[in-house]
Amino acid sequence: MSTDSKNHPRTHRRTPRRTTRYAVPVLAAGAAVALTAAALTWSEDTAPTAEPVSHDTAQQGELVWSDEFDGAEGEAPDPANWNHETGDHGWGNQELQNYTTSRDNSALDGDGNLLITALDEGDEYTSARMTTQDNMEHQHGRVEARVHLPSGQGIWPAFWMLGSDFPETPWPDSGEIDVMEYIGSELGTVHGTVHGPGYSGGEGVGASYDHPGGGSFADGFHVFAIDWEPGSITWSVDGVPYNTITADDVSGDWVFDQEFFLILNVAVGGEWPGYPDESTEFPQQMAVDYVRVYDME
Q1: Nearest Cα residue to 182 out of 99, 108, 118, 258
Q2: Nearby residues of 213 by Cβ (< 8 Å), 6 or more positions away
Q3: pLDDT in tens, 67-95
Q4: Which of 25, 31, 194, 270 lies 20 to 30 Å from 165, alpha-carbon distance?
Q5: Residues 225, 158, 28, 140: what is their CA dihedral angle, to the nearest 10 degrees?
Q6: Which residues carry out catalysis?
Q7: Residues 6+ positions from 43 with CB-CB distance below 8 Å
Q8: Which CATH fold topology does 21-295 show?
Protein backbone atom coordinates (compact mmCIF):
# COMPACT_ATOMS: atom_id res chain seq x y z
CA MET A 1 0.00 0.00 0.00
CA SER A 2 1.31 3.43 -0.91
CA THR A 3 -0.49 6.63 -0.10
CA ASP A 4 0.29 10.27 -0.51
CA SER A 5 1.70 11.71 2.71
CA LYS A 6 -0.99 14.32 2.97
CA ASN A 7 -3.51 11.50 3.38
CA HIS A 8 -1.27 9.20 5.35
CA PRO A 9 -2.10 8.27 8.93
CA ARG A 10 1.11 9.23 10.68
CA THR A 11 0.54 12.94 10.26
CA HIS A 12 -0.21 13.41 13.91
CA ARG A 13 2.79 12.86 16.07
CA ARG A 14 2.94 15.24 18.93
CA THR A 15 2.66 14.22 22.56
CA PRO A 16 -0.89 12.90 22.75
CA ARG A 17 -3.55 14.02 25.17
CA ARG A 18 -3.73 11.64 28.11
CA THR A 19 -6.73 9.93 29.59
CA THR A 20 -7.77 10.98 33.06
CA ARG A 21 -9.34 7.70 34.16
CA TYR A 22 -8.87 3.96 34.30
CA ALA A 23 -5.08 3.69 34.39
CA VAL A 24 -4.14 0.76 36.64
CA PRO A 25 -1.01 0.95 38.79
CA VAL A 26 0.00 -2.43 40.22
CA LEU A 27 3.08 -4.05 41.74
CA ALA A 28 5.38 -6.00 39.45
CA ALA A 29 8.31 -8.12 40.64
CA GLY A 30 8.18 -6.43 44.03
CA ALA A 31 8.59 -2.92 42.64
CA ALA A 32 5.95 -0.27 42.16
CA VAL A 33 5.10 0.22 38.52
CA ALA A 34 5.81 3.81 37.53
CA LEU A 35 3.43 5.81 35.41
CA THR A 36 4.61 9.03 33.79
CA ALA A 37 3.74 11.69 36.30
CA ALA A 38 2.32 14.10 33.77
CA ALA A 39 0.40 11.44 31.92
CA LEU A 40 -2.46 10.64 34.25
CA THR A 41 -4.70 12.12 36.89
CA TRP A 42 -7.35 10.31 38.85
CA SER A 43 -11.06 10.98 38.60
CA GLU A 44 -11.55 9.59 42.11
CA ASP A 45 -9.67 9.93 45.39
CA THR A 46 -8.57 6.31 45.34
CA ALA A 47 -6.94 4.80 42.28
CA PRO A 48 -8.38 1.49 41.07
CA THR A 49 -6.33 -1.67 41.39
CA ALA A 50 -6.16 -4.84 39.34
CA GLU A 51 -4.08 -7.96 38.92
CA PRO A 52 -1.53 -8.03 36.09
CA VAL A 53 -2.70 -9.70 32.91
CA SER A 54 -0.07 -12.42 32.51
CA HIS A 55 1.06 -14.03 29.29
CA ASP A 56 -0.19 -17.33 30.70
CA THR A 57 -3.65 -15.83 31.00
CA ALA A 58 -3.52 -14.79 27.36
CA GLN A 59 -2.65 -18.34 26.40
CA GLN A 60 -6.07 -19.44 27.65
CA GLY A 61 -7.64 -17.61 24.73
CA GLU A 62 -7.67 -19.09 21.26
CA LEU A 63 -4.57 -18.23 19.27
CA VAL A 64 -6.03 -17.25 15.90
CA TRP A 65 -2.92 -15.89 14.16
CA SER A 66 0.79 -15.56 14.82
CA ASP A 67 4.13 -15.07 13.20
CA GLU A 68 7.00 -16.62 15.16
CA PHE A 69 9.57 -15.51 12.56
CA ASP A 70 11.11 -18.95 12.26
CA GLY A 71 13.28 -19.41 9.20
CA ALA A 72 16.81 -19.20 7.93
CA GLU A 73 19.04 -16.20 8.52
CA GLY A 74 18.56 -13.58 5.81
CA GLU A 75 15.14 -14.81 4.65
CA ALA A 76 12.35 -12.35 3.99
CA PRO A 77 9.47 -12.12 6.46
CA ASP A 78 6.60 -14.33 5.29
CA PRO A 79 4.86 -12.55 2.37
CA ALA A 80 1.65 -14.40 3.24
CA ASN A 81 1.64 -12.34 6.45
CA TRP A 82 3.46 -9.09 5.70
CA ASN A 83 3.44 -6.40 3.02
CA HIS A 84 6.18 -3.79 2.68
CA GLU A 85 5.22 -0.15 2.36
CA THR A 86 7.94 1.84 0.61
CA GLY A 87 8.97 5.41 -0.02
CA ASP A 88 10.81 8.44 1.31
CA HIS A 89 8.12 11.13 1.22
CA GLY A 90 8.22 11.99 4.93
CA TRP A 91 5.11 9.96 5.85
CA GLY A 92 3.32 13.09 7.03
CA ASN A 93 5.68 13.65 9.95
CA GLN A 94 8.76 15.05 8.17
CA GLU A 95 10.46 11.69 8.70
CA LEU A 96 13.81 11.11 7.00
CA GLN A 97 13.87 7.40 6.19
CA ASN A 98 13.27 5.69 2.87
CA TYR A 99 11.32 2.49 3.51
CA THR A 100 12.56 -0.36 1.30
CA THR A 101 11.95 -4.04 0.58
CA SER A 102 15.67 -4.81 0.98
CA ARG A 103 16.82 -7.65 3.21
CA ASP A 104 19.27 -5.11 4.62
CA ASN A 105 16.27 -3.47 6.27
CA SER A 106 13.99 -6.43 7.07
CA ALA A 107 15.06 -10.06 7.44
CA LEU A 108 14.89 -13.05 9.73
CA ASP A 109 17.95 -13.61 11.90
CA GLY A 110 17.80 -17.43 11.97
CA ASP A 111 17.16 -17.44 15.73
CA GLY A 112 13.42 -16.87 15.59
CA ASN A 113 13.41 -13.09 15.29
CA LEU A 114 12.50 -10.52 12.66
CA LEU A 115 15.03 -7.71 12.41
CA ILE A 116 13.88 -4.30 11.17
CA THR A 117 17.08 -2.32 10.64
CA ALA A 118 17.48 1.44 10.22
CA LEU A 119 20.66 2.30 8.32
CA ASP A 120 22.60 5.47 7.60
CA GLU A 121 23.52 4.96 3.94
CA GLY A 122 25.41 8.25 3.70
CA ASP A 123 23.03 9.96 1.29
CA GLU A 124 19.86 8.69 2.99
CA TYR A 125 18.49 6.72 5.91
CA THR A 126 16.74 3.44 5.07
CA SER A 127 14.43 1.25 7.12
CA ALA A 128 11.33 -0.98 6.79
CA ARG A 129 7.62 -0.65 7.42
CA MET A 130 5.50 -3.82 7.27
CA THR A 131 1.73 -4.34 7.46
CA THR A 132 -0.70 -7.26 7.51
CA GLN A 133 -3.34 -5.42 5.47
CA ASP A 134 -5.37 -7.85 3.32
CA ASN A 135 -3.42 -10.75 4.90
CA MET A 136 -4.57 -10.63 8.53
CA GLU A 137 -7.22 -8.28 9.86
CA HIS A 138 -8.92 -8.93 13.17
CA GLN A 139 -11.48 -7.48 15.55
CA HIS A 140 -11.21 -7.66 19.37
CA GLY A 141 -9.15 -10.05 21.48
CA ARG A 142 -5.55 -9.79 22.62
CA VAL A 143 -2.83 -8.45 20.33
CA GLU A 144 0.77 -8.70 21.50
CA ALA A 145 4.36 -8.63 20.33
CA ARG A 146 7.61 -9.48 22.09
CA VAL A 147 10.11 -6.86 20.99
CA HIS A 148 13.67 -5.71 21.66
CA LEU A 149 13.60 -1.99 20.92
CA PRO A 150 16.30 0.15 19.30
CA SER A 151 17.30 3.48 20.82
CA GLY A 152 18.97 6.78 20.04
CA GLN A 153 18.11 10.36 19.27
CA GLY A 154 15.67 10.47 16.34
CA ILE A 155 14.89 6.71 16.40
CA TRP A 156 11.15 5.94 16.47
CA PRO A 157 9.99 2.29 16.50
CA ALA A 158 6.31 1.37 16.71
CA PHE A 159 3.85 -1.53 16.82
CA TRP A 160 0.44 -0.23 15.81
CA MET A 161 -2.82 -0.84 13.97
CA LEU A 162 -5.12 0.82 11.42
CA GLY A 163 -8.74 0.17 10.55
CA SER A 164 -9.00 -2.30 7.69
CA ASP A 165 -11.02 0.11 5.53
CA PHE A 166 -8.06 2.53 5.31
CA PRO A 167 -7.40 4.28 2.92
CA GLU A 168 -10.95 4.13 1.54
CA THR A 169 -11.94 5.58 4.90
CA PRO A 170 -9.25 8.22 5.46
CA TRP A 171 -7.27 8.66 8.63
CA PRO A 172 -8.24 9.44 11.38
CA ASP A 173 -11.83 8.30 10.70
CA SER A 174 -10.45 4.82 9.96
CA GLY A 175 -9.07 4.64 13.52
CA GLU A 176 -5.55 4.02 14.78
CA ILE A 177 -4.45 2.00 17.81
CA ASP A 178 -0.83 2.48 18.86
CA VAL A 179 0.00 -0.62 20.88
CA MET A 180 3.51 0.70 21.49
CA GLU A 181 5.51 3.72 20.40
CA TYR A 182 8.99 4.49 21.65
CA ILE A 183 10.99 7.69 21.35
CA GLY A 184 14.56 6.44 21.26
CA SER A 185 15.94 9.32 23.30
CA GLU A 186 13.44 8.64 26.12
CA LEU A 187 14.81 5.26 27.13
CA GLY A 188 12.50 4.49 30.03
CA THR A 189 9.09 5.38 28.56
CA VAL A 190 6.71 3.78 26.07
CA HIS A 191 3.39 5.15 24.82
CA GLY A 192 -0.02 3.68 23.97
CA THR A 193 -2.60 5.84 22.19
CA VAL A 194 -5.76 5.84 20.08
CA HIS A 195 -6.58 8.29 17.30
CA GLY A 196 -10.01 8.78 15.75
CA PRO A 197 -12.37 11.44 14.42
CA GLY A 198 -12.11 14.48 16.68
CA TYR A 199 -9.21 13.14 18.76
CA SER A 200 -6.18 12.74 16.53
CA GLY A 201 -2.70 14.19 16.40
CA GLY A 202 -1.94 16.14 19.55
CA GLU A 203 -5.48 15.31 20.73
CA GLY A 204 -4.94 11.55 20.57
CA VAL A 205 -6.01 9.78 23.76
CA GLY A 206 -3.57 7.56 25.62
CA ALA A 207 -1.00 7.19 28.36
CA SER A 208 2.69 6.60 28.92
CA TYR A 209 4.32 3.85 30.97
CA ASP A 210 7.70 4.09 32.68
CA HIS A 211 10.13 1.23 33.11
CA PRO A 212 9.39 -0.17 36.59
CA GLY A 213 13.07 -0.45 37.47
CA GLY A 214 13.98 2.97 36.15
CA GLY A 215 15.89 1.40 33.29
CA SER A 216 15.67 1.34 29.52
CA PHE A 217 13.13 -0.48 27.35
CA ALA A 218 16.00 -1.08 24.94
CA ASP A 219 17.65 -3.32 27.53
CA GLY A 220 16.08 -6.53 26.21
CA PHE A 221 12.83 -8.08 25.05
CA HIS A 222 9.51 -6.82 26.39
CA VAL A 223 5.92 -7.85 25.64
CA PHE A 224 3.66 -5.02 24.48
CA ALA A 225 -0.04 -5.85 24.29
CA ILE A 226 -3.61 -4.67 24.19
CA ASP A 227 -6.67 -6.47 25.51
CA TRP A 228 -9.41 -5.25 23.19
CA GLU A 229 -13.11 -5.60 23.86
CA PRO A 230 -16.22 -3.89 22.46
CA GLY A 231 -16.00 -0.31 23.69
CA SER A 232 -12.75 -0.81 25.63
CA ILE A 233 -8.98 -1.19 25.10
CA THR A 234 -6.43 -1.95 27.86
CA TRP A 235 -2.67 -1.57 27.34
CA SER A 236 -0.03 -3.61 29.14
CA VAL A 237 3.74 -4.07 29.22
CA ASP A 238 5.18 -7.41 30.33
CA GLY A 239 1.76 -8.44 31.62
CA VAL A 240 1.21 -5.28 33.68
CA PRO A 241 -1.82 -3.23 32.57
CA TYR A 242 -1.27 0.52 32.70
CA ASN A 243 -4.21 2.19 30.98
CA THR A 244 -7.76 1.50 29.83
CA ILE A 245 -9.67 3.67 27.37
CA THR A 246 -13.40 3.31 26.79
CA ALA A 247 -15.85 4.93 24.41
CA ASP A 248 -16.63 7.44 27.17
CA ASP A 249 -13.02 8.71 27.12
CA VAL A 250 -12.94 9.94 23.53
CA SER A 251 -14.46 13.17 22.27
CA GLY A 252 -15.68 11.77 18.95
CA ASP A 253 -17.01 8.52 17.58
CA TRP A 254 -15.55 5.26 18.91
CA VAL A 255 -14.24 3.64 15.71
CA PHE A 256 -12.48 0.61 17.19
CA ASP A 257 -15.19 -2.06 17.01
CA GLN A 258 -14.12 -3.16 13.54
CA GLU A 259 -11.30 -5.16 12.00
CA PHE A 260 -7.79 -3.68 12.11
CA PHE A 261 -4.49 -4.68 10.51
CA LEU A 262 -1.05 -4.62 12.16
CA ILE A 263 2.01 -2.48 11.41
CA LEU A 264 5.66 -2.77 12.48
CA ASN A 265 8.16 -0.05 11.58
CA VAL A 266 11.23 1.90 12.64
CA ALA A 267 11.16 5.56 11.59
CA VAL A 268 14.14 7.89 11.58
CA GLY A 269 13.39 11.48 12.56
CA GLY A 270 10.05 13.22 12.57
CA GLU A 271 8.26 16.03 14.35
CA TRP A 272 7.73 14.09 17.57
CA PRO A 273 11.07 12.29 18.13
CA GLY A 274 13.26 14.95 16.55
CA TYR A 275 16.19 14.09 14.31
CA PRO A 276 19.42 12.10 14.56
CA ASP A 277 22.46 13.98 15.77
CA GLU A 278 26.11 13.19 16.43
CA SER A 279 25.10 10.94 19.34
CA THR A 280 22.92 8.66 17.20
CA GLU A 281 24.55 5.36 16.30
CA PHE A 282 23.64 3.26 13.26
CA PRO A 283 22.58 0.64 12.46
CA GLN A 284 19.61 0.49 14.83
CA GLN A 285 17.57 -2.73 14.94
CA MET A 286 14.16 -3.63 16.27
CA ALA A 287 14.08 -7.38 16.93
CA VAL A 288 10.62 -8.97 17.02
CA ASP A 289 10.41 -12.42 18.58
CA TYR A 290 6.74 -12.92 17.73
CA VAL A 291 3.44 -11.23 16.98
CA ARG A 292 0.30 -13.05 18.23
CA VAL A 293 -3.43 -12.46 18.06
CA TYR A 294 -5.86 -14.20 20.40
CA ASP A 295 -9.63 -14.40 20.29
CA MET A 296 -10.68 -14.04 23.93
CA GLU A 297 -14.42 -14.57 23.38
Answers
A1: 118
A2: 31
A3: 999 999 999 999 999 999 999 999 999 99
A4: 270
A5: -10
A6: 176, 181
A7: 20, 21
A8: Jelly Rolls (2.60.120)
